[in-house]
Design goal:
By secondary structure, this protein is mainly beta. The protein contains 1 helix and 7 strands. The longest helix has 8 residues.
Length: 91
Amino acid sequence: MTEFRMPSLCADMTDGTLLHWFVSPGDQVQHGDLVAKVYTVETAIEVERLAEGVPGELLVLEGPPASVGTVLALIDSAGFAAETAVAPDSP
């Protein structure tokens, strides 16, 4: 499992508000997929995932602010590889 944390989206950002999850536990997430929309003091920004995986648990719900670095979700990278592997042809 890897941790998906609240990113720092601008130089003076100390926290952000999770406005919307674009994923649910069990979804397959690939590099570049939108994962969440986060509101900072200046704007709302869509955050993408930089690696493949399957969200196992969303730890922060939409609404209350979360500090930069807070773990927002756990992502199972091994699960993605297992689910997307192609089975070999039977002899």
